[in-house]
Description:
By secondary structure, chain A is α+β, with helices and mostly antiparallel strands. Chain A is built from four helices and seven strands; from the N terminus they run E-H-E-E-H-E-H-E-E-H-E.
Amino acid sequence: MAVRQVSVFISNQEGRLLKVTEILKNNNINIISASLAEAVDFGLLRLIVDQPDKAKEVLKAADLSAKLSNVIAVKIQDEPGSLHDVLESIDNFNIEYMYALSMPSGAYIIMKVKEIEEVEAILKSAGHEVFEGDFSM
Amino acid sequence: MIWNETKECMSRDEMSYIQSVRLVKLVDRVYHNVEFYRKKMQEVGLEPGDIRGIEDLCKLPYTTKNDLRDNYPFGLFAVPRNQIVRVHASSGTTGKATVVGYTRKDIETWAECVSRCLARSGVGRDDVIQIAYGYGLFTGGLGAHYGAEHLGATVVPMSTGNTKKLLTMMQDFEVTAIACTPSYLLHVAETIEQQGILDNLKLRTAICGAEPWTENMRLMIEDRLKIKAYDIYGLSEIMGPGVASDCEFHNGLHISEDHFLPEIIDPTTLEPVGEDVVGELVFTTLTKEGLPMIRYRTKDLTSINYEKCECGRTLARISRFKGRSDDMLIIRGVNVFPSQVESALLELDETKPNYLMIVDRVAHQDTLEVKVEVDERYFDDDMKGLENLSKKIAGALKMALGLAVKVTLVEPMTLPRTDGKAVHVIDNRKLV
Lengths: 137, 432
């Protein structure tokens, strides 16, 4: 059932990212990984947090646009070729974006594809470890 | 030079007489030919015979832009369609255009009125004039064009958009006069300064209009280009450019009163106000055949003065415009209502996002930026989606307004609100 990610729309201005991190800090939400995509006027902040529902709720309460979506988290080994092996097994699918996440238990690649269930099944059958549920440290 | 001394310098008594005779005929004509006017008169118990002269004008109901829209496209025309030789259109407040129509005689009257304005600006048959208003559905280009031809000047129909070509021809053709918006002329002045070609020019007169400007801006244009600059006013519902313009004394704009009967009213009580009192300008077209207008509310705020001018003309003068009694903006000569932006956004989504229009003037050119608050309905964790949304809004606004718009997506609740009510327009333009 994939991993839930929080996406936040932020204006491309000083202080806006800080507002998001401040809200999460005040609500005791742990950010496990973050990625920021930018356009000219705005950015899209993508977060993996320990409490995605609460994160969405508190961000919305602060008048921010936040949305939950599903992404795939696949574990990769700390050795040459491991990312390549993961990608090779799903080379028929378009990856929209990707970022990394590190836990005491190991490193994960977070990726967005349209066909989440299908890709997860293929990754599993190729012997890759797919994380499901919410991360917590 | 006074183009039509008989009409422009007649006594007030003579003018009132002509206006009265024309008004009586006009009312009779619209009562019998335009259902809209007939119904409106019947509603207040008026018959054509009740209007015996201009003193009875105040009995007639007002007409507004909404009436034009409700009768889109040709519902208010007072002649059979086959007598209309031209239509113009401007973007309306809710997407539907405001359409105006002219008979052959209307086109001639229009040219006559524009000729008066050009002559008032010192332009004559020896001049070479560049018309740098847009040609097309907008009345500016063709209106000024026909007037300048009627006057006998050599007309160069530049239209808008190519300053480089405009300047090349200005030098090569020894152009002496230009008709364009004041902000565009300042842009042209800047380009002339950059190229250092002022001394090569024969330009001596500019006739500027279609957007609000100030006396300071006029003086600045005169100083920078070493020319004389004049103010021309008009609106398509009444005719187009040439309804009024100022003379060499720049003490108000002379109205061609024999064709356009002016009134100033209080926009709230709708009662006429006295001479020199600021209120909303209202026009009744006395001679127009195609689309006669009875007490049309222009929403432009000004005052009127009936004293004879130092130039010898007795035509009443309206002062420089003090603003609008509605929320219309004029951006690069294009009329823009915030409601147009609103309805364009509504078409994207049933629950429209909050928005803010920021109008500015950068390098003497008007700019329009529309900021749109993005809530989670509008994005799906997708940069491409957001970029497409921005493009889609820009496209919809360009279609609706006829203007290029910069769209900026911003976070929800970040646009200014006063007392919880959203502010939709910020106009940062300093009219110099």
